[in-house]
Amino acid sequence: MTSHWCDFQNADVIMNIGSNSAENHPVSSKWIHKAHERGAKWIVVDPRYTRTAEQADIYCPIRSGTDIAFYGGLYNYIIENDLWQHEYVLNYTNASYLLDPEYEFDPATGFFSGWDEEAGKYSNHSWHYQVESETVWDTSEGGDYAWAVAEGVPEFTPPVVQHPKRDMTLQDPLCVFQQFKKHYSRYDMDTVCSICGMDKETLELVYSTYASTGQPGKAGAVLYALGQTQHTYGAQNTRAMSVLQLLLGNIGVPGGGLNALRGEPNVQGATDMGMLVNEHPAYLKWANTTDRSSLRKWLESQTYSDGYYTNKPKFLISSLKEWFGENATVENDYGYDWWPKVPTSPDFTMMSTFELMDQGVIKGYFNWGMNPCHSAPNAGFVRRSMAKLDWLVVADQVATESATFWKAPDMNPEEIDTTVYFLPCALIYEKPGIILNSGRWMQYRNKAVEPWDMAKPDYEMCDLIWREVCRLYEEEGGANPDPILKTKWDYYVDGKIDPRPVAWALNGYRVAGTECNTTSAAPKTDLLPGYGDLKADGSTACAMWIYSGFWSNNDAPLDAAEQPIGRRDNSDASGIGLNSTWAYAWPNNRRILYNRASADMAGKPWNPEKVLVEWTGDKWNLVDAADFVAAKNGKPVPPNDKAFFMLWEQNGRLESYGMADGPLPEHYEPFETPVESNPLNGALNSPCMQFARNESTRKGDSAEYPIVATTYSVTEMWQTGGQSRMCPALVEAMPSQFVEISEELAAEKGIEKGDKVRVFNNRGSVVVDAMVTKRIKPLTVHGETQHLVGLTHHYSWAGVFGTGDTVNDLTPNVGDPNSFTPEYKAFLVDIEKA
Ligand SMILES: Nc1nc2c(c(=O)[nH]1)N[C@H]1C(S)=C(S)[C@@H](COP(=O)(O)OP(=O)(O)OC[C@H]3O[C@@H](n4cnc5c(=O)[nH]c(N)nc54)[C@H](O)[C@@H]3O)O[C@H]1N2
Ligand SMILES: Nc1nc2c(c(=O)[nH]1)N[C@H]1C(S)=C(S)[C@@H](COP(=O)(O)OP(=O)(O)OC[C@H]3O[C@@H](n4cnc5c(=O)[nH]c(N)nc54)[C@H](O)[C@@H]3O)O[C@H]1N2
Ligand SMILES: [Mo]
After folding, report:
1. Which atom of ligand 1 is nearest to the CA of 45?
2. 261 CB under 6 A from ligand 2?
3. How large is the average pLDDT for residues 159-168?
4. CA distances for 618 relative to 574, 607, 641, angstroms
5. Best mutation site among 15, 24, 241 for ligand 1 pocket (most ligand atoms within 8 Å of CB)
6. Hey, which residues does 13 pair with through a beta bridge?
7. Ligand 1 centroid to 444 CA: how many Å?
8. Is 811 close to ligand 2, i.e. is its CB under 6 Å away?
9. Whether residue 700 is found in the same domain as residue 800
10. Which cofactor does it need (predicted)?
11. Which whole number is the average pLDDT over 320-345?
């Protein structure tokens, strides 16, 4: 989220697209209703008439998997009707930048320039800007970048700042704005309706309502979640929404933003802290075998030439100092070579993991707090892959499908040799810890009760395993000992592993002044006030630069309640619900990211009633924490056009060279699609879909499986049910899985409400209850009737209550080339009465 939950109250228009917030994030409704009661318009774009749609003003149906056509049509509408926010787009985005003359999109083939057929991927060279001039970092004494050559800072060649060529009249055919306009001129409303299966009147109403937020002072909020991300072009969907918000000047303003309503508690914290194969904690990149194979290469490839990420060396060296403690010195590149190097191939993303198990490459597996035999796409394939493991460790609070995979109805235990270890974990109420919400608020929760029976908090289990691995290395030796034995691991209070010294590590501290391992009630710490104090010379340690500041009170380093994270003052000095004295929002307690964009070029807020930052003529009045350079060396910096300072251009990207699958979002059909052509371009699917060629995906075609299926959650259940299916009251409230079927399709198939229905495709077959409903309507796609069904996916065989078939036996294990997220939201099936 660029914004936070309470900020929905400031919106003039709210659009839920691919998010059923009333169902999955019920508390968000409180803030949406505040806006709604004030007269804000509420739009829902969803294949199903959901519990959210029921409360909204406008419901627009859409065929699953066609959102980019919808956004492309909206851009075209905004440009044709001159509804974009001119001053914002001109100054705060890259609209005026000239693209490389080689840049091209060919509608006949559906390819952008740079496609390499042999490699099966794009080279992004031609997606870059033309360069006007270059400048270099001033590293001389007293210069802005003197720190980069200070003692203790590893040697690297600073990047050259390339100033792009711009045309501030936006007339040059090579400028981003003109290329963008040309690209989306193909997306007329008739074409969009024909692809997405909606009627033109509704579409026009949605377009005109949402585009009304392009006026300065008006704000539109986009709320999205899995209906956007779980596609083979899910990351492009996300970009498409960012671009929409930039065109309308809706990013960085109160009531605006691009708001991912997030999932598992604690998915925000988990992604921040690097529970991803490609991102190191705090969104720095892991070492790899190519452009990050040494510290110097990392610094040279990752440090931005301009903007805030010029500071990356400080973040990285501070991270290495936490990772390896006193073993990390400038002479040994701060231990960089002890980091594992992520290989280019194979990749170890979730779906690949099961391919590698199937191939016998992965022989042992730690399955920690997840249940892929139920939740992963093509779950039958996952179970068959797991059956090839030598050993499996499952850490969970209940015996899940993954912990008991050999007992699945389609498994034969006699043929399975895998040894399974089960580690019972403490529940959230049985351990203290930090949790983040979608709005990046960090909060601390205390332990309520002792863990049950043998169960332990996860960090205690990790500590026991870690210490045992270290003991074995010390006593018996082994391959590659340094990455293990040089690691700093001293997060103990009174000899017990403890989350509080971990909090110091996340916050950052001066190395000379802090001792993590403590037996004292008043431990010695020199915690930093924020990431502005981080150094690249080894004098500071910090595992998570983005969190820095949340645990910075040196007077009570062991007391969460006395830390910024523990604040519970709900008075609101801002008057617009920033609530800056409640908890701590990363980064720097900033509630609304990119808040510089809430004011015009002169620093005057677009909406004088809702001020985040304001230039008063001689200084900035900061209601929210600044998201830009407001002062330098104690002197105020007057307003300029650098509203997005986390990018080197410091301008938002309508066009971006950073994506694997194209510089502009382009409509492609899902991996499995009911249609045979794409009226917008010559490619049916995205050429970059991940894993589409793997045999295990067992692609089905529309002749055999003509119906589009999508999957989703319900309020009464939680994902695979580890925390909800064991609760009889919840199972009573939602007693079975069901498939939502339109009355028309039900009549065609001779199905009635409550019948058992078999839903099947090449990958699997499940029997669920029929929910015959007006909430789903047949769509007209390319002139033909198209049916869509929706399935819940919470049940499976394990457990006492709420058992049923595994819906993920149907979903395809293909995904997005940027995020590797699976396509759970659009695939093909057929149905029959069981
Ligand atoms: N009670 C409860 N709350 C939950 C969860 C839970 O299991 N139970 N899960 C949590 C988790 S982990 C997550 S990630 C979030 C998920 O939150 P949401 O993303 O809101 O969850 P879903 O119900 O999966 O999907 C949202 C909507 O997307 C629609 N949709 C499907 N395909 C498309 C499409 O192609 N385009 C568009 N525009 N819409 C589409 C679906 O019909 C559905 O209404 O919820 C969290 N909250
Ligand atoms: N078809 C379909 N499939 C989907 C989705 C979809 O929309 N459609 N949504 C996807 C999404 S968004 C998500 S997030 C995934 C979720 O997929 P999973 O993460 O595999 O599903 P969960 O049921 O949330 O599993 C979490 C497990 O962690 C256990 N657990 C809870 N607390 C703790 C703890 O403190 N420690 C440990 N060690 N274990 C704990 C729970 O008991 C549970 O078994 O599912 C995905 N699968
Ligand atoms: Mo999720």
Report:
1. 38
2. no
3. 97
4. 21, 20, 17
5. 24
6. 41, 220
7. 27
8. yes
9. yes
10. [4Fe-4S] cluster
11. 95
Distance from the alpha carbon of residue 792 to the mean position of ligand 1, in angstroms: 10
Q: Whose CA is nearest to atom 24 of ligand 2?
A: 719
Tell how far the Cα of 399 is from the centroid of ligand 2, in angstroms: 13
User: Which burial class, exposed, middle or buried, applies to 609 when counting CB atoms under 10 A from its CB (0-12, 13-18, 19+)?
Assistant: exposed
Atom of ligand 1 minimally distant from the CA of 48: 42
Residue identified by tokens 């959210």 is: 52
Nearest CA to ligand 2 atom 25: 370
In a domain, 459, yes or no: yes
* Residue nearest to ligand 2 atom 46, measured at CA: 375
Collapsed DSSP state (helix, strand, coil) of residue 278: coil
d(CA 293, CA 743): 59
Residue 194's domain spans which residues?
5-74+183-264
Tell me the CATH number at 470: 3.40.50.740
Q: Which helix (H) or strand (E) holds 828?
A: strand 827-833
Atom of ligand 2 at shortest distance to CA of 423? 38
**Do 717 and 792 touch, CB atoms closer than 8 A?**
yes
Pocket flag, ligand 1, residue 24 (CB < 6 Å): yes
pLDDT digits (tens, 9 = 90+) for 552-581: 999 999 999 999 999 999 999 999 999 999
Instruction: Please check whether residues 63 and 204 belong to one and the same domain.
Output: yes
Confidence band, pLDDT 50/70/90 cuts, at residue 311? very high
Residue 726 Cβ inside 6 Å of ligand 2? The answer reads: no
Residues 719 and 824 in one domain: yes
- 8 Å CB contact between 300 and 638: no
> In sequence order, what are the residues at sequence separation of 6 or more whose Cβ sits closer than 8 angstroms to the Cβ of residue 286?
278, 279, 280, 292, 339, 340, 341, 342
Query: Distance between alpha carbon 557 and the CA centroid of its chain, in Å?
Result: 31
Beta bridge partners of 288: 342
CA 409 to centroid of chain Cα atoms = 34
Instruction: Quote the radius of gyration of the chain (alpha carbons, Å).
Output: 27
Q: What is the CATH number of the domain that holds 14?
A: 3.40.228.10
Are residue 259 and residue 358 in the same domain, yes or no? Answer: no
Structural tokens at position 569: 């003052």
| Ligand 2 pocket check for 263: Cβ under 6 Å | yes
Residue whose CB lies within 8 A of the most ligand 2 atoms, among 50, 370, 421, 456, for a mutation test: 370
Domain identity same for 795 and 700: yes
DSSP state of 580: T
Closest CA to 216 of 92, 43, 72, 32: 92
Same structural domain for residues 242 and 364? no
Residues 260 and 392 in one domain: no
Confidence of residue 633 (pLDDT cuts 50, 70, 90): confident
Q: What angle do CA 133, 138, 142 make, to 5 degrees?
A: 150
Contact 663, 788 (CB under 8 A): no
To the question of pTM greater than 0.90 for the whole model, the response is yes
Q: How many CA atoms lie within 13 A of 100 on its CB side?
A: 17
The whole-number pLDDT of residue 190 equals 98
Q: Which amino acid is at 18?
A: G
Residues 61 and 187 in one domain: yes
Domain stop point among 225, 248, 264: 264
The tens digit of pLDDT for each residue in 778-820 reads 999 999 999 999 999 999 999 888 899 999 999 999 999 999 9
E strands present in 637-715? 707-712
In a domain, 29, yes or no: yes
Q: What is the pLDDT, as a whole number, of residue 771?
A: 98
Q: What is the CATH number of the domain that holds 735?
A: 2.40.40.20
Count of domains observed in the chain: 3
Block residue for tokens 């690297």? 156
Give the residue from 267, 309, 251, 308 showing the smallest Cα distance to 2. 251
Tell me which residue has its CA closest to atom 15 in ligand 2.
375
Task: For ligand 1, pick from 46, 730, 786, 795 the residue to mutate: most ligand atoms within 8 Å of CB.
Answer: 46
Strand partners, 258: 222
Name the nearest CA neighbour of 71 among 17, 26, 146: 17
